[in-house]
Amino acid sequence: MKRRGYIWLIFWVFMFLNSAGEVFAQCSQNNFTVTGFELRNEAGVPFSVTDDYELGEEVTGELWMFLAGSSTNGYNLRFFFDIHVNGILTQDDQYECLFPGTQAIQGIWVKVRDFTWNWGDVIDVKDLFIYWDTGTAKSGTTCVKSDKNNINAQCYSNPNGYTAAVPLFPKFDFVSNGICNTTIEFTSETIGGSPPYEYTFEWDFDGLGAATGPNPTFNFPSSGTYSIGLTAYDGVTTTTIYKDIFIDPNFGIQVEIFPTKKDESSGMIYVESVTGGTEPYSFVWTGPNGFYSTDKDIFGLSDGLYQLTVTDANGCTQTIEYLLDIASVLSLDLSFIEASWSKETGLVSLKWETNKEAEVGAFQIQRRMNTEDKFEVIGTIDVPNIKIEKTAYEFHDSTFAFNRDQLYYRIKKLTQEADYYSSVLLVRREVPLPLVDEWTLFPNPSIAGQNLELAFLGNEDILDQEVQLRLIGPSGELGKKIIPMPANSKITFNSYFGPIPPGFYVLEVIWDNQVNRIKILRN
Predict the structure, then answer these.
(1) Does the reported pTM lie above 0.90?
(2) For 86-161, where are the E strands, in sequence order?
(3) Mean pLDDT within 116-133
(4) What is the per-residue pLDDT across 204-225, written as a single tens digit (0 to 9) for each?
(5) DSSP class of 360
(6) Most-buried pick from 56, 62, 92, 338 (CB within 10 A)?
(7) Nearest-5° Cα angle at 164, 162 to 170
(8) What is the number of H-type helices and E-type strands within the chain?
(9) Secondary structure of residue 79 in the 3-state scheme
């Protein structure tokens, strides 16, 4: 009777364990183990802090794991696992075959499968179980799947698993509290980093004030553009981003500019209309050589940069700059001209329409980076025939440096009789601001197997310049490379120095007679 009780006790213990979850075999070998998971983009590259995803946006990427262990004496790794999204089991008892017919390699990141999730989701990979064929790999063989509960040798199990990591991504959104209200509410949308994802935040409101916490409110002195800094700390890593916000006074200004003739002060700027806001409006102009006026329209102007501030009856203000440039002979006869930058394509588009083409010739599309620079020709469009009807033209520019936030354009028509000029158009672009100094290395700290990306985030134009990279370790200089700066201003570190082992390093970046030193921690 006592022996029967023991039998029933064993039976109920087995039933309890089976109902509580998977029953894993007892795996004593540690030939192969898993030490972590990572989410990557669809090219298999780790995410960078400069990637721009919206919270909740669907991401098509890949799931990778870091394979470790004590021996490479195996192949045909059968890998079982469960996927939990935000704490909920969504994919049960998944299976992949790793290293089919080839010798397994340890100490590297291994792609598990293509993977889709929503940006901001916490992905846990649990109930890990791997078993393998022992010995030297036999070419042409593959995994033969069997019931994992019958395996108790040449295997690895880990019911708890790991969270699939993405880097720490500080990000925020903001809303205003009504028309011409400069009190702005900020909301952190930070994700990634190290579990348990308990972040602390520090905010910098363009040097006007600071705050902590995830959802601060700040009252700015007026409408306009402000640079906002957000520093996030997850208990392991600290990352800072800067982003410009624009507080819109909700009214617009339309002006017409008549450039001055050469060696004259005959320019004019007319305010055609002010829309939005509440009348009456007041106007304040400032310009070169101490120019100041409170008139709506201004005359007798020399070339240079003029600034207009419009204030409505509620005290809402908006400030806009206009560049008045010398027209050497005559202005083009245009029905319209416009220039705009597209965030989606990254191109600046110029469009204009002539009322007629009285002379054959050619249009020169000209650009300059700063008001002090000379215009340079970036494109040409021929006008081979005289036309009496309106004609539309279009030109797209992609040759500017990625870190230029404003560009100046004009159209010049060359004919046998004279040269004609359009007004100068100012185009503003959104560009990333520096995170740390002028160069940043990501991810840092990193672990073995991760690719490192070096990016230039300064305001200088270093396209086509040579950049010297010098890697220094505890034993001295480990390597030196001289490379041309790529068009995207990003350099893949591993392509030049390969994977570096754990330790502490210094990367010296030398460009344009300047030096930046970045400390690298490889865990």
Answers:
(1) no
(2) 88-103, 108-118, 123-134, 155-158
(3) 91
(4) 999 999 999 999 999 888 777 8
(5) -
(6) 62
(7) 125
(8) 2, 38
(9) strand
